[in-house]
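Title: Comparing notes on inverse folding

I've been comparing how different people in this forum approach sequence design from structure. To keep things fair, I'm posting one structure and asking everyone to reply with a full sequence. Here's the target:
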């Protein structure tokens, strides 16, 4: 355990926690038009749904493939948006904006001696691109991708990637995610969990409550 923090490692989900998943559509808002928000929400919803279904079936496809498939569905579901924008939306997804507080919070934790890592459904190439674009590559110690296991959260073995690599007990790891289902999975595994509830969503999975709920990472 580090001398400056109560936990040996702080591990973060990537999409929705560090990186704004709606940034790709928002960056092209003038082209996409008034149905952009609806498109973005469906895109994200299907991206997650496809990961859960694939994990349950044991039929793995990497997260980038699921991201493409989810956008294709969203464009079909929202015909008001011209499908000709598909490629530039996908291209932008490789360079999503990080939330404003992220660099300062991560640097503060790093300066206090904590190990910092991402644990994400994202493919390694996607994560490396997003991290580099946000200039977080000099702050983070590791990027753990489910691609190594060919499955997705909330399979327990995904969370075990961290404890095995760092040789830590789960309770010495603080895990942060904006996804309540991800927090439930991490809590079940034994991590200390912090739900970053950016959307002020109602709580669920009451038997697997987070240790802390924050609106963003600032008070971490």
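Reply #1:
Here's my take.
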């Amino acid at each position: 355990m580090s001398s400056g923090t109560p936990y040996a490692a702080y591990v973060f989900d990537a999409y929705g926690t560090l990186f704004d998943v709606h940034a790709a559509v928002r960056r092209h808002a003038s082209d996409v038009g008034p149905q952009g928000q609806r498109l973005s929400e469906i895109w994200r919803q299907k991206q997650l749904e496809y990961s859960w279904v694939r994990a349950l079936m044991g039929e793995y496809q990497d997260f980038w493939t699921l991201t493409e498939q989810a956008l294709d569905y969203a464009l079909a579901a929202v015909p008001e948006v011209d499908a000709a924008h598909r490629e530039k939306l996908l291209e932008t997804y490789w360079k999503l904006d990080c939330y404003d507080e992220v660099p300062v919070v991560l640097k503060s934790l790093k300066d206090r001696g904590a190990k910092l890592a991402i644990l994400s459904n994202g493919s390694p190439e996607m994560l490396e691109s997003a991290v580099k674009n946000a200039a977080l590559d000099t702050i983070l110690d590791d990027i753990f991708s489910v691609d190594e296991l060919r499955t997705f959260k909330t399979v327990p073995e995904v969370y075990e990637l961290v404890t095995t690599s760092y040789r830590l007990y789960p309770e010495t790891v603080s895990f942060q995610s904006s996804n309540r289902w991800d927090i439930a999975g991490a809590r079940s595994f034994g991590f200390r969990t912090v739900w970053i509830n950016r959307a002020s969503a109602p709580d669920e999975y009451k038997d697997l409550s987070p240790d802390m709920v924050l609106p963003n990472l600032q008070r971490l």
